[in-house]
Write a structure and sequence with these properties.
Layout lengths: L11 H50 L4 H7 L6 E2 H4 L24 E4 L5 E7 L2 E6 L5
Antiparallel strand pairs: 1-2, 2-3, 3-4
Length: about 140
């Protein structure tokens, strides 16, 4: 009588094929995931800029800082958010975190055109980059 030997498990070739397939999938997925992280940071920066613009409009409507803002902004200069914001308005001032908007000092600036239009910008390498409203590409 012959004994039937059952081999349980995978052969070396099967394991190498599976590892190769996983490596190919990882090489495709990892760059996409890295890009998604940066896009989510940009989206967060844009959402923070919109909140800052909305809060600025509401604050101006209550006339709590519009006079000093207009004096500072009389030559269409950017108003540095962190320098003048009072603690009762916000516990923490958000800072840009994405590569696109981080800039040199990592601070949002508010620009008021005198007609009620608020623009939130950052300074990146000496250039003014509009964060809100989002420019049309």
């Amino acid at each position: 009588m012959k004994k039937i030997i059952e081999n349980k498990g995978f052969t070396l070739v099967e394991l190498i094929v599976v590892i190769g397939i996983l490596a190919v999938l990882a090489s495709i997925a990892i760059p996409n995931l890295i890009g998604m992280v940066e896009k989510s940071k940009q989206a967060k920066d844009e959402a923070n800029a919109k909140l800052i613009a909305d809060a600025t409009i509401m604050w101006m409507a209550e006339d709590q800082f519009s006079n000093s803002f207009n004096e500072y902004n009389s030559h269409n200069l950017e108003w540095p958010l962190g320098k003048y914001l009072n603690k009762s308005f916000a516990d923490e001032i958000p800072r840009p975190i994405s590569k696109k908007y981080k800039g040199n000092n990592g601070e949002y600036y508010i620009n008021h055109d005198g007609n009620g239009k608020i623009t939130v910008v950052v300074i990146v390498d000496g250039e003014r980059v509009t964060v809100y409203p989002k420019p049309v590409d």
